[in-house]
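TA notes, week 10

Several of you asked for a full example with nothing omitted. So below is the full record: C-alpha cells for the whole chain, then the designed sequence directly under it. When grading your own attempts, check the secondary structure regions first.
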C-alpha cells in the first residue's frame, strides 16, 4: 500500500525492510543488501510499463511501433537512465524524456501522452518493483543457503 500511495521505491524502502524482517524468511545480511539495492536498481514495473506504453503511443499516434533495433537501443538506455529515478514519483518517464524524443522521435503530443499515462499507472509500477525486490531477495537467499550447505 505504501508503494501505491507514494509512487516511490525510495520512500517505500523503510516499509519494505520492516516487512521483510517481520516475515523472518530471509537472512538479515541478504535483506540488508538486496532490498536497498533493488529499490534503486530493480525497476521491472517501471521499465516494462514504459516500454509497453511507448509502443502503444507510437502505434496510436504515428501508425506504427518503432523498429526492433530502435526499441532495443531504447530499452538498454532506459535501463541505465532509470537507475537514478526511483526516489521521484514518475521519475522513470521524466528521466527518459530525452530518449523518448531523440531515440523514438516523439513530438510534444506523444511526450505529453506518455507523461499522462505513466503518471496514472506509476503507483502500480512501483508496487511491482517492490514486490520484485522481495522475490529477488528470496532467490539470493536460496542461492546463499545452498552454497553454505555445500
Amino acid at each position: 500500500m505504501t508503494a501505491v500511495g507514494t509512487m516511490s521505491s525510495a520512500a517505500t524502502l523503510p516499509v519494505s525492510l520492516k516487512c521483510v524482517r517481520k516475515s523472518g524468511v530471509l537472512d538479515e545480511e541478504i535483506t540488508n543488501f538486496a532490498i536497498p539495492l533493488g529499490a534503486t536498481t530493480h525497476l521491472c514495473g517501471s521499465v516494462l510499463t514504459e516500454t509497453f506504453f511507448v509502443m502503444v503511443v507510437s502505434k496510436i499516434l504515428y501508425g506504427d511501433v518503432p523498429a526492433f533495433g530502435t526499441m532495443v537501443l531504447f530499452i538498454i538506455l532506459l535501463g541505465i537512465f532509470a537507475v537514478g529515478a526511483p526516489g521521484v514519483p514518475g521519475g522513470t518517464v521524466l528521466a527518459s524524456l530525452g530518449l523518448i524524443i531523440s531515440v523514438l522521435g516523439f513530438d510534444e503530443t506523444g511526450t505529453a501522452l506518455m507523461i499522462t499515462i505513466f503518471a496514472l499507472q506509476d503507483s502500480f509500477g512501483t508496487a511491482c518493483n517492490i514486490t520484485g525486490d522481495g522475490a529477488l531477495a528470496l532467490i539470493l537467499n536460496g542461492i546463499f543457503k545452498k552454497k553454505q550447505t555445500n
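The mean pLDDT is 84. Use that as a sanity check on your answer.
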